[in-house]
Amino acid sequence: MFASFFLSGSCRTAPGYVRPALLLALAVPVAGMSAEVVQAPLSKARQAELEAMLTGEIQRVVNSQKRIEGQGRDVAASVSFEARSGEQELGLVIDLSETYVPLVFGAEMEDLQHQLSTTARQLLREIVSVRGVRFRYGGKDVYHYFPEQLQEELRAAEARAARAARKDAAAPTAAATVVVAAGHGIYYHYGFKDWRAQRDPSNGIVEDFITPAYATELSHWLSRRSEATTRFPRSTSVVTHVPSGQPWERIGARYHLQATYPNNPEIWNSLPGATDNLRERNEDIRSRPLFANHIGANTILHLHTNAADDMTATGALAFYQPGRDEDQRLADNILCYMKELIQAKEPYKSYNVANKAGRDDYGENRLAAMPSVIIEAGFHTNPSDAAALKDPVFRTAAMKGVEKGYRLNAEGKSCEPFKIDRIPDATGLQGVPIPIEVHYKGYPQFAVTAQVEIVSCPIGWTCTGGKLTYRDKIPSPLGYRYTCHTTSRPPANFRLKTTLDDTDQVSPEPVEHNVTCTPAAQETPGAAPVGKPSITISLG
């Protein structure tokens, strides 16, 4: 459908976690983490070969890990593939001896597990796509040893079921309450008896201190574009937190929530009987989803930067809780649009963003009664990633991508990056506006600008390009008009190249197409040309 107004842009024709510091000892680069692996199903013989290789490597890493309280020195490991009903992708099971079970199943244990799952994923990344990794201990899952975690999981599942049953849950919208959780923050360590960050510095970044800027950025775009109400578990105040002597903005969520909800210790003191040195760090992790549950949030997004012993590990990742299809769709959508928005920026055209989210078990996601996704923007242990993480241009692009993934997922739309689908060749009479249709796919952020360039121009014509702006959201196709300002010339063929750019500077590959102008029917063949031949490109 073409509008009737015109825009100047005349064209006179004329003649483009490993989350915590994982001590990966593999001599395998991690840079290809996001590569999509598409291959024929593995034969049983090939699976057995890979399982033996993985078992040997996982055993080596287990042997090199520093044991935490309660773990035994001697641990046997085995790895096997598993195929789940209804899923095309294979999963992995890493089975470890009961001696690997610690006294407390908290942040330290999550770090060790993640090291092992990342090791396995990297070994397989050029061979077969693995979405999820499950851990067993002596053939049993973690709930066998920590039944209280099973009860928490069941309570979260019940809350999710109640949420889904509500009338408003049947028609999700972007305009909702979203908890934006900046990862980590200073906590009190009972062993060292001091206040300390949860992550070590690397390349000028401390994860605990950089994630609040990402949370503020994401909150801005969620409010502006999704019309969502956002809530922060951590404080944004620069006033001094007296016990630590640090600004409140650097302190973990647990302590801000304690000050805000003193009568709700179940949020921030969820392990009242714990006596281990890291109990407040573990409570800090748990406090974020428990806060989201308390206020009845619709979604929680956890923002992190990543770390690995291998400084070549690079790129953005996301994780969701096993068994939660809604969370999986959200996580995959977020990665899709993070890639689109980040790679739209010239310095980051090759920045690595995973194609699919990982299905891993983390407390931040597990305890949430609503869709919950962990987002890792990049590796601060990689010098190139670290430079990007400190760049406001990268930060804005990444968080715009998170917001877009959230919003389109809420609208029931899946991953479909902005691209020009096709521009059909057009033919029309000289002196009469010829409609050009630019069919696109995806979800550009309007306004969208079309740049029309002349690829080839007939002899005797003078050709120049033009620029048109579509300020209002218009469904595909976009249209403009091409007018040959002459009525007595022989048929003329023009080749054009049209490029689109949206407000976020997402610019899909341009498309070349043809326009043919024929003499008006009432003109006498061979009549002398009238006036100087030219064209006008107008918005339509």
Cα-to-Cα separation, first versus last residue: 8 Å
Tell me the CATH architecture of the largest domain.
Answer: 3-Layer(aba) Sandwich
Number of helical stretches of at least 4 residues? 12
CATH superfamily grouping of the largest domain: Zn-dependent exopeptidases
Largest sheet: 6 strands, mixed
Rounded Rg = 28 Å
Tally of individual domains? 3
SSE inventory with pairings:
Elements: H1 44-64, E1 77-83, E2 90-96, H2 107-124, E3 130-137, H3 142-145, H4 147-165, E4 177-182, E5 187-189, E6 194-196, H5 207-225, E7 229-231, E8 240-241, E9 246-247, H6 253-260, H7 265-268, H8 279-295, E10 299-306, E11 317-320, H9 325-342, E12 358-359, H10 363-366, E13 372-379, H11 383-389, H12 392-410, E14 419-422, E15 426-429, E16 434-441, E17 448-456, E18 466-470, E19 478-484, E20 492-502, E21 511-518, E22 535-539
Parallel strand pairs: 2-3, 4-7, 4-10, 10-13, 11-12, 15-21
Antiparallel strand pairs: 1-2, 5-6, 8-9, 11-13, 14-16, 16-19, 17-18, 17-20, 19-22, 20-21
Helix pairs in contact: 1-2, 5-12, 6-8, 9-12
